[in-house]
Write a structure and sequence with these properties.
The complex is a heterodimer of chains A (about 350) and B (about 1050).
Chain A lengths: L1 H18 L27 H28 L2 E5 L13 H6 L6 E7 L8 E8 L6 H5 L3 H5 L27 H4 L5 E6 L2 E3 L1 E2 L6 H7 L30 H7 L7 E8 L8 E7 L10 E7 L10 H26 L11 H4 L5
Chain B lengths: L43 E5 L5 H6 L16 H9 L3 H12 L9 H34 L2 E5 L5 E5 L8 E5 L7 E7 L5 E5 L1 H4 L4 E5 L18 E5 L11 E5 L2 E5 L4 E2 L4 E3 L3 E8 L5 H5 L9 H34 L24 H15 L8 H18 L13 E2 L11 E7 L5 E12 L2 E3 L5 H6 L5 H6 L3 H7 L28 H13 L4 E4 L5 E4 L3 H12 L2 E6 L3 E8 L4 E16 L4 E7 L5 E5 L2 E5 L1 H16 L5 H12 L4 E2 L1 E9 L3 H10 L3 E5 L4 H10 L8 E5 L4 H9 L2 H25 L7 E6 H7 L5 H10 L2 E5 L3 H15 L2 E6 L5 H6 L2 E5 L6 H4 L3 E3 L4 H18 L1 H5 L11 H25 L14 H23 L5 H23 L2 H4 L5 H6 L3 H28 L3 H12 L1
Classes of the chains: A alpha+beta (about 350), B alpha+beta (about 1050).
């Protein structure tokens, strides 16, 4: 008893003094942040929660997958590889010699059958395989300043080795990308009636308006001893040379398509399209392939089943997991926060 | 417990060897007093009062300015840059930055320079700010004012920094000494003064200094006019408690000892003024010689972080090598038929792609790839961790639950390096006095003439009764509280909690043995070396050498024997005279003081009362002396005391022993060092958390065991294993002498005891009986020897509690080192005094108690808290959070797919695998979903910038969502950071894409024109992000369902409760 009484006296004097506000106190200021008392939500993965998450993913993913697959299925696509067939039979042993010979006739005629009704616009692409537009040397071999402004035509840094002519005049547009411009051409006809291919607006608007100048005219292009790809019309400014603009948006992967033009009329199932093409571009040196592609588009773009299948697969997996977890939960129920699982409860002699 | 005196030796650095307070070791006979001029190590010449003489200037001693800064203005940039680039990651990025200016760079140089400049700049700025703080402090110190003799009858004020060796200075009461001074004279005729050395060794008690007799007469300005002397002394060194030198004055040589030396940074107390001659200035002073950089401690995580960075380096080099080898082969084949990529112009290639020199090209490519994948090395990791640590330190500093109201001291994280280590502490090594206990002695009980007085129970009794009453502990006012409340409340006086109605309020007069009681309190009031000081509230406080002495004087005062004045020769009391029946003032002439020595373990005074009676008072006994007996002894004593001799102390002790005989015992006292508030509870909780606690104390075995019980470290039912050399047969052995044989047998004895204890422990293994190991310092010395330390540690680790008593500071540090090295776990040392410094610096984490014992421990600690009980929150709350947070820094920063978190290698590997999985999923899903088909309804296909943006968007989403899944709780900060990062990425895309195409190049309009309106883009992101997170989500659920971890369970438990 004595103890308690004695101590209480001491305490009251001490705490009374302590609670009084003191000047120059080093007492830290209270704030929820410094005291780490911010309101927090603590999501916790309870079995029910987990099962719902998996189910939710499944519920969302499967319809998306179906929709994507349907979109992909709706797209009608005609792909025609012509690089080998367009080499004359007598030249098949040395295709490189054939393609590099300027004298030979490079024209070639292909017929394509429309398998299903294709509603306009029908996009015409050329597809290259095993062409590394993403090679570091290639990607960097251009000069954006020169492309943008006439006044900067002397800017050719980074364009090696297609920089300047022998006399030192700048090449416009300089660099390997422009130099290797794709130059096969296609003329389409159904029967005797030519199909018009609209080549306007095949490039991105930002490129036309801001990256390729309206006052930049090609100069000294493909004038060297070694001619790479296509030539340019010296009278048209770069902003109107859409084939070049498209080509210069380099592709990320070695297999790529580039827009060639649009056919702005419907094609009916069974229509036979005759393609007269100029097989100018050399893919034979590096064993590349060339394909001509006619394709419609859906809200999702072109034909590609991967997205739909992947959505279905992931959605399916989540459904499966949801079921699996449900079974585990039913077979081996565990109460939320069962303290008996804690080691010190399991083994009372513990520490 | 009665009359326990802390055998705390007052040395800072244990290599100095044991010196105990209040006596100084005489200089070794071969060195002193015959110090030859110019002897090696004794070359310093001080021309007193003649600092400007040609001889003095020739010596060219440094001035008194100090500089503790790390850098100067001139060397800041190179030196701090050098420091910065010693970090592996920074150095790597420096090299990368250099290469990035070459055509090798896969990106623009600014992308690498900017982060590097920011990181290095920020760290340098921090260094600069810290150094500026030091500089400001230096300037303040250097410009303090002191009075210096001008050589012509007067003193003038000047700055500290202008002091020269040999100057005569006058230091006033409560001023710091500006340099190491030779005490010449004081305002007391006998040339004594008192100094407080708190800044040096953390001790609050006053120390007496005594000038040489020949100089003690230099009292005024005039007397210095003709004063010229030459001091020849030791060279500057760091030994605070030794000084050897000779004063050459008027042709006579006088030996000097530490008694005459006033050290810089100590303070003059209780003396009006002193005159001193400057001996050591500036960096030559002992305190500055002691100021060495504390050992830099690096946390485990930081060390492991370095390792991780090396691992990342290795993987970086590995990945890059594979890439470059493939590149080399491809390039070599460039010219072969069917593989001739004419559009790359291999015929006219630059050196980087030349198929004819494919090897070289591959090497250059290696450098490029190294840069490209350089983001594997987290450049910002160090600085981010630094920022997190600073925040954590702020949290620790600001925690109200670790704020001590009484002392007005919040917790302080002095280094931010070790925050996360707090969460991993395995062993706590604790000092006892001042750490577990308040280090304020309380007079609890006494026995006078065989009758026990005092009703308050002591801590031991409380603990033994098994009821730890929180209220009780809580109510016991701490030392500070009592200190502050003095004057406001009579009841709670410092050191006084004695309760007994038979004695208090003058009631003792009625007791049967009132005569003895009278004497008893007389002894307490007179037999001491305390100095009464009148406080502001006109109360008398005492400054005593030790807390128990203060407790005695206080209790005497409270019971009516108020000791109010001490002069050099007398002690004055207000005392109650039962014969007259009222209070009278009495003065006792102080004839001799036989100072405390650890050999005698007692202290006595001889006084002459007003009735001319000669009395010897010793606690708590007395003796009446006759003049015949006293006078010859006194002559002897004075002679011996003033002699200079190697065995000085022993001889003084012997002489003192001659008179301290035939004493009449009055009674016994019981003083108790109160436990600090909340100590037993805190220890209990820490023990529950699986933390081992060792007490390392200088106390004797019995005291240590008592304290162990009081603070719950020893409990009933624990088996105590005592290893001691303090047994009768060993003591007998010790007397025999033969040192080698003794050593050997002691060693064997300790070894045997340890082995026995070990086998006992292993025998009892199954029984779940906790063990407590108690070992004394002598045994410890042997137990720490190389041959035994292993088994000793095994034994110690097997015990729940370990108490080492009678340990020297050096042993404390050794034990700490042993535990640290042998267990390879994190150790924490906690202490408050200068004798704990070694231990604090040796341990992984040193925690200083910012209590009464000055700042020495705090200065060398990593964390400072006001009371022991705060340790619980520091370790169990802050430590855990800090650890979790630092560990979690990694996923946030590794935005390129390789993620790693918790700091165990399997975990790091697990996260790396998770990262690789996520990366593969992101890459394959994106490139396959966005293939060569049209990307949008308008027929455009995706070029590389679109694919890149899509992929990177997926990475940003994945990393942040991964973090969100990993986090166990969300406040608005987490929400802000996680969702903010994602939003920021989109904002960046839009804003950067809107810059003119000259700046943004490929990013120009990419989001706005191409991606935003493409459903494919959004669908790919949803698919990829969910798929990339799925492996981790599945794994963590699987693990939580089948192999839950503790924190998962606890978390669920909490949710259930809510």
């Amino acid at each position: 008893m004595n103890n308690v009484n004695g101590s209480v006296v001491g305490s009251s004097s001490g705490s009374g003094d302590g609670s009084a506000p003191r000047r120059n106190s080093k007492r830290p200021k209270y704030s929820r942040f410094t005291q780490q008392e911010l309101p927090a939500c603590k999501p916790i993965l309870t079995p029910k929660w987990v099962i719902s998450v998996f189910t939710l993913i499944g519920v969302v993913f499967v319809p998306i997958g179906i929709a994507s697959l349907m979109a992909s299925n709706d797209v009608v696509e005609i792909v025609d590889r012509y690089d080998n067939v367009c080499v004359p039979p007598n030249m098949t042993n040395d295709k490189v010699a054939y393609i590099q010979n300027n004298e030979t006739d490079k024209s070639c005629r292909r017929t394509l059958e429309v398998p299903k009704h294709m509603s306009q616009p029908i996009y015409v692409y050329y597809q290259l395989d095993n062409f590394y537009q993403n090679h570091r040397r290639y990607v960097k071999s251009r000069n954006d300043a020169q492309l943008r402004k006439h006044s900067q035509e002397n800017e050719t840094s980074g364009c090696d080795p297609e920089k300047r002519t022998k006399d030192g005049a700048p090449i416009v547009p300089c660099g390997l990308i422009a130099w290797s411009l794709f130059n096969d051409t296609y003329i389409f006809a159904i029967g005797n009636k030519n199909l018009t291919v609209n080549k306007k607006g095949i490039s991105w608007k930002s490129d036309r308006d801001h990256k390729f100048g309206k006052d930049v005219l090609p100069k000294n292009f493909q004038s060297g001893p070694l001619i790479g790809g296509g030539k340019l019309d010296d009278t048209k400014p770069l902003s109107e040379q859409e084939d070049l603009i498209v080509w210069m948006r380099t592709a990320a992967l070695p297999t790529f398509r580039k827009l060639y033009g649009r056919i702005e009329q419907d094609l009916n199932a069974g229509d036979v399209i005759t393609v007269t093409l100029e097989n100018n571009y050399n893919t034979y040196s590096f064993s590349g392939k060339k394909k001509l592609v006619l394709s419609t588009s859906s809200w999702l773009g072109g034909k590609n089943d991967f997205l739909g299948i992947a959505y279905l697969a992931v959605g399916g997996l989540c459904f499966f997991l949801a079921v699996a977890f449900t079974i585990v939960y039913l077979v081996k129920p565990r109460k939320l926060g069962d303290p008996s699982y804690l080691s010190w409860n399991r083994n009372p002699a513990g520490h | 417990m009665a009359g326990e005196r802390r055998p705390r030796s007052a040395h800072l650095f244990f290599e100095m060897g044991p010196l105990s307070r209040s006596r100084s070791r005489p200089p070794p006979a071969d060195q002193s007093p015959g110090v030859g001029r110019g002897d090696a190590g004794y070359s310093r010449m001080v021309h007193c009062n003649d600092p400007a003489s040609p001889q003095a200037s020739e010596l060219n001693y440094s001035d008194n300015s100090i500089s503790t800064t790390k850098y100067t203005v001139a060397n800041f940039v190179p030196k701090s840059l050098f420091e910065q680039f010693r970090r592996v990651a920074n150095f790597f990025f420096l090299i990368v930055a250099f290469i990035s200016f070459s055509p090798l760079a896969p990106y623009r140089a600014v992308s690498i320079l900017l982060p590097l400049v920011v990181v290095v700049g920020a760290t340098m700025a921090k260094e600069a700010v810290e150094d500026w703080q030091r500089k400001k402090q230096d300037i303040e110190v250097n410009n303090r004012k002191v009075k210096v003799y001008d050589g012509s009858f007067s003193f003038y004020q000047t700055e500290w920094k202008k002091l020269r060796v040999g100057d005569i200075v006058r230091v006033e009461k409560d001023e710091f000494f500006p340099a190491d001074l030779l005490l010449l004279s004081t305002n007391h005729d006998d040339g004594t003064c008192y100094v407080e050395t708190m800044n040096l060794d953390g001790e609050t008690n006053l120390k007496r200094k005594q000038s040489l007799e020949v100089t003690s007469t230099l009292h005024n300005e005039d007397s210095f006019q003709n004063f010229k002397a030459l001091i020849n002394c030791e060279d500057p060194n760091e030994k605070l408690y030794s000084f050897i030198g000779i004063l050459d004055y008027e042709g006579v040589q006088f030996p000097l000892n530490p008694k005459q030396i006033l050290l810089r940074d100590s303070k003059l107390r209780n003396t009006q003024h002193v005159y001193g001659a400057v001996i050591f200035t500036g960096h030559d002073t002992k305190v500055m010689q002691n100021a060495m950089d504390p050992p830099s401690k690096r946390s485990n995580i930081e060390r492991r972080m370095d390792k991780i960075i090396y691992v990342l380096f290795a993987s970086l080099v590995f990945i890059s090598s594979i890439g470059s080898v493939c590149f080399g082969i491809k390039t070599k084949n460039e010219t072969s038929v069917g593989n001739y990529r004419w559009y790359l112009r291999p015929d006219n290639s630059s050196i980087y792609f030349d198929p004819n020199r494919a090897g070289l090209a591959a090497f250059f490519h290696f450098l490029t790839v190294l840069m490209l994948y350089g983001c594997l090395i987290p450049i910002s990791l160090y600085i981010s961790i630094e920022i997190v640590k600073v925040l954590q330190s702020i949290f620790i500093d600001h925690d109200l639950e670790m704020y001590c109201e009484d002392s007005d001291k919040p917790a302080r994280a002095r280094t931010s390096n070790l925050n996360e280590e707090l969460g991993q502490v395995d062993t706590i090594l604790s000092d006892k006095t001042g750490t577990l206990t308040c280090n304020s002695m309380e007079f609890v009980k006494c026995s006078i003439a065989g009758i026990a007085y005092g009703s308050r129970s002591c801590e031991m009794e409380k603990a033994a009764s098994g009821i730890i009453q929180y209220e009780l502990c809580h109510d016991s006012p701490s030392a500070f509280e009592r200190h502050r409340s003095e004057g406001t409340s009579k009841k709670s006086t410092k050191g006084f909690s004695f309760r007994d109605d038979r004695l208090t309020n003058g009631q003792w007069v009625g007791e049967p043995n009132s005569e003895v009681i009278h004497k008893f309190f007389h002894v307490l009031a007179i037999c001491n070396t305390a100095i009464p000081v009148v406080s502001k509230s006109d109360e008398i406080l005492y400054e005593a050498e030790s807390p128990d002495e203060a407790a005695f004087v206080t209790v005497a005062r409270e019971l009516g024997f108020e000791f109010y004045r001490r002069t050099q020769t007398s002690v004055s009391l207000h005392e109650f005279d039962p014969k007259i029946g009222r209070k009278v003032d009495r003065t006792y002439e102080l004839l001799d003081t036989l100072e405390f020595s650890s050999a005698r373990k007692r202290m006595s005074v001889i006084v002459r009362t007003e009735s001319n009676q000669l009395l010897l008072f010793c606690k708590v006994a007395y003796r009446i002396l006759s003049a015949e007996e006293y006078i010859p002894w006194h002559d002897d004593f004075v002679k011996i005391k003033n002699s200079v001799n190697a065995d000085h102390d022993t001889i003084v002790d012997e002489v003192a022993d001659r008179i301290e005989r035939d004493l009449i015992l009055l009674g016994a006292t019981a003083v108790e060092d109160r436990l600090q508030q909340g100590v037993p509870e805190c220890i209990n909780k820490l023990a529950e958390a699986g933390i081992k606690i060792w007490i390392l104390t200088g106390d004797k075995l019995e005291t240590a065991v008592n304290i162990g019980f009081a603070c719950q470290l020893l409990r009933k039912g624990m088996e105590q294993l005592v290893i001691t050399l303090d047994t009768p047969n060993i003591n007998a052995l010790k007397k025999d002498g033969d040192k080698n044989a003794l050593e050997k047998s002691l060693h064997e004895n300790v070894s045997k005891q340890i082995c026995e204890a070990l086998s006992h422990v292993s025998k009892m293994k199954g029984s779940n009986v906790p063990f407590a190991l108690i070992i004394d310092g002598d045994s410890l010395a042997f137990a720490l020897s190389t041959s035994l330390e292993h088994s000793f540690l095994d034994l110690a680790v097997a015990c729940a509690s370990v108490i080492c008593c009678r340990t020297s500071p050096k042993q404390k540090a050794l034990v700490t080192r042993l535990v640290k090295w042998r267990t390879r776990k994190t150790t924490l040392a906690i202490g408050d005094g200068a004798n704990d410094v070694g231990m604090l610096q040796e341990a992984d984490i040193g925690v200083g108690i910012s209590g009464v014992e000055g700042m020495q421990a705090v200065m060398s600690s990593d964390f400072a808290i006001a009371q022991f009980r705060f340790l619980e929150r520091l370790l169990l709350v802050h430590g855990h959070w800090c650890y979790r947070r630092i560990s979690a820094m990694f996923p946030k920063l590794h935005q390129d797919g390789v993620q790693n978190i918790f700091f165990s290698w399997p975990r790091i590997l697990g996260w790396m695998i998770n990262g690789v999985c996520s990366a593969l999923i992101i890459y394959y899903f994106t490139t396959h979903a966005i293939f060569h088909q049209a990307f949008r309804q308008d027929g455009h296909v995706a070029a590389y910038e679109i694919l890149g943006v899509t992929m990177y968007t997926c990475v940003v989403w994945t990393v942040n969502c991964q973090l969100a899944i990993y986090l166990s709780y969300f406040t608005w900060i987490q929400h802000c950071v996680i969702w903010g990062s994602i939003i920021f990425w989109y904002m960046f895309l839009v804003v950067y894409g809107s810059f003119p195409s000259t700046i943004s190049t490929t990013a120009y309009w990419v989001f706005r024109e191409a991606c935003a309106s493409s459903p494919l883009y959004w669908l790919v992101i949803l698919l990829v992000v969910v798929s990339a997170l799925l492996p981790y989500f599945m794994y963590s659920n699987f693990q939580k369902t089948f192999f839950p971890k503790y924190h998962d369970l606890i978390q669920r438990l909490q949710v259930k409760k809510e």
